[in-house]
Amino acid sequence: MIYTRSQSKENSLSACGYSYMKNGGSRLRALNAVLMMLFIAACGGGGNSSAPAGSPPVSFTYSAPEYINDGWNVAHLDDEGIDSQQIIDMMNLILNGTYPGIDSVAIAKNNKLVLYWFDENRPLHSSDWQINNTDRERHILASTTKSFTSALIGIAIDQGYIGSTQVKLLNFFSYPEYANWDPRKADISLEDVLTMRLGFVWDEWELPYSNPNNDLVYLENNNNDWIKALLDLPVAHDPGTEYTYNTAASIALGQVLENTTGIPMADFANNNLFLPMQIINADWWLTPTGLPNGGSGLFLTNRDLAKFGQLYIDGGIWQGQQVISAEWIADSVTQHVDISSWSNSEGYGFQWWIDRFSYNGQPVEAWTTKGYGGQYLFAIPSLDLVVSFTGRNRDNGVGPGILYTMTQTVVSAVN
Questions:
Q1: Are 403 and 353 in contact (CB under 8 A)?
Q2: pLDDT computed for residue 56 by the predictor
Q3: Among 104, 132, 139, 387, whose CB has the most other CB atoms within 10 angstroms?
Q4: Closest C-alpha to 413, from 151, 80, 148
Q5: pTM
């Protein structure tokens, strides 16, 4: 595997958090107005459109996904209570560039895969070369990776390697000393890491990831051991009090996993998560110390990504096998942090966002992962519905709002 410096991270809050359902849907109406402006701009000159300028309209032909013995049962949209015409209309908007930069779409209903499409001609990106990936079906998940890393921590707790989320973070490491020592560092718990409330001086959203002074980019470009660099940071707040999005903290969870299990993180993931879910082509790009980047470096197909959403809807069970305990699933998607006052999500769990969509005029909860460029997974338990995307909308102001709009289209198509 080839390692290069990080280029694929989740976008800033302003770009990641277009509204879609709050206060009776008023923010969804506001989103639609914003998207109209985005569509005008996007259709006028981007390189992300699936249909080149001047090309004749592309028509999407729907058929049920192929059965390939990968654990998914497959079905037709209409047979599972989803209006296929609405989905066809949505896919035509993707293929014709109205919804630009979408590389794949998957929909599962009632534990059956009912739509799977990916762009066989998608452009390869610098992130693909991080692992020499030439398979256009397999895609970097960016910050959606964080939710998988959280799942691995849950499995380690289930298996007794880790006592609980209340274990103090520094207990997992044996560094002889830490810069900027503050007694509050000793109070940081594993739960504080999972909920991004470590208390460190940190802000990876103020500056774009293209700026070398971005806190995350600076840490990665100027340190060999990213975990030590994180733990050496000054403390600004008491642990457990202030939410601060921190990709380096998610990467540190992978080191916690290796230090406690004695098993390389990739092997632990394969043996305890991926292979039980019949996922055979997972790959990671690595940090300089050889640790899989659990903050943004996982590669999967969208067909496999959708399995992860179904796993959580089904309480940690994949096709009859308990892969993760139901207790961990429930804790992961519980709102541990209320971020509704400044975010378009309601809350944050264990590396999962808690969102709302409108269904028949009523709010329904969604458990969401969000990855830079358009790597999104929406698990909507009350509808037994999973919707997932991969994409290439990086630093162009297009992407997250479109994904929420498309997901609301899918929700509205459910009979």
A1: no
A2: 64
A3: 139
A4: 80
A5: 0.88
DSSP E strand boundaries for 15-148 = 73-74, 102-109, 112-118, 138-140
Residue spans per domain, the chain: 13-134+305-413
Ranges of residues in the chain with a pLDDT under 70 are: 1-56
Closest CA to 183 of 243, 238, 241, 227: 238
Spatial contact of 299 and 140, defined as CB atoms under 8 Å apart: yes
Q: Which two tokens stand for residue 160?
A: 């007794």
Dihedral, 204, 308, 391, 295 alpha carbons, nearest 10: 20
> How far is 71 from 290, CA to CA, in rounded Å?
31
| HSE-up of residue 113 (Cα within 13 Å, Cβ side) | 27
Identity of residue 149: T
Task: Name the CATH architecture for the domain at 13-134+305-413.
Answer: 3-Layer(aba) Sandwich (3.40)
Return the structure tokens found at 361.
């005029």
Around Cβ 59, how many Cβ atoms within 10 Å? Answer: 10
pLDDT tens digits, 214-248: 999 999 999 999 999 999 999 999 999 999 999 99
Could you tell me which of 395, 339, 341, 397 has the C-alpha nearest to residue 368? 339
Q: Quote the tokens at residue 297.
A: 């470096």
Angle at alpha carbon of residue 303, lines to 300 and 306, rounded to 5°: 95
Q: What is the DSSP string of 385-415?
A: EEEEEEE---SSS-SHHHHHHHHHHHHHHB-
- Give the β-pairing of 138-140 and 283-284: unpaired
- How many C-beta atoms lie closer than 10 Å to residue 267's C-beta? 12
From the CB of residue 212, how many other CB atoms can be counted at a distance below 10 Å? 10
- Distance CA(94)–CA(165), nearest Å, equals 42
CA distance 323 to 104: 26
Contact 25, 358 (CB under 8 A): yes
